[in-house]
Amino acid sequence: KRRVILFILCVCVCQSGAETLRYSLPEEMERDSFVANIAKDLGVPLSQLAARKARVVSEGNEQLFRLNQNTGVLTAKESLDREEICPQSDTCT
To answer: What is the pLDDT at residue 14?
Structure first.
């Protein structure tokens, strides 16, 4: 009985999983520049962004992007400078 419940729980969690989107951006992108329309790229209605609590997750302390849950638009929160964000690397992820 435990195995069946655990299996059902695992299936439900996997079905509701998150999706990762990746974008390439030009260096020194201006503040508030358009990056992407997340709702369109994910193929979900705008109403689902807020309902699913869509958010941008950053590995560092600083949040570089802003997501408008009402429009699905992802923008650069500040001007992006690769040398400032990733000073020791030729590529910046």
So the answer is: 43
Whole-prediction pTM value? 0.68
Task: Say if residues 30 and 39 touch (Cβ distance below 8 Å).
Answer: no
Burial of 43 by CB count in 10 Å (0-12 exposed, 13-18 middle, 19+ buried)? exposed
Q: Output the six-digit token pair for 69.
A: 């849950």
State whether the Cα torsion 43-49-53-57 is positive or negative.
positive
pLDDT tens by residue, 10-52: 444 444 455 677 787 777 778 888 988 988 988 888 888 888 8
- Structural domains of the chain sorted by starting position, each given as residue range(s) with its CATH number in brackets: 33-80 (2.60.40.60)
> What does the pLDDT read at residue 73?
92
Buried b (16+ CB within 10 A) or exposed e, 1-25: eeeeeeeeeeeeeeeeeeeeeeeee
Query: Minimal CA–CA distance to 23: which of 31, 15, 33?
Result: 33
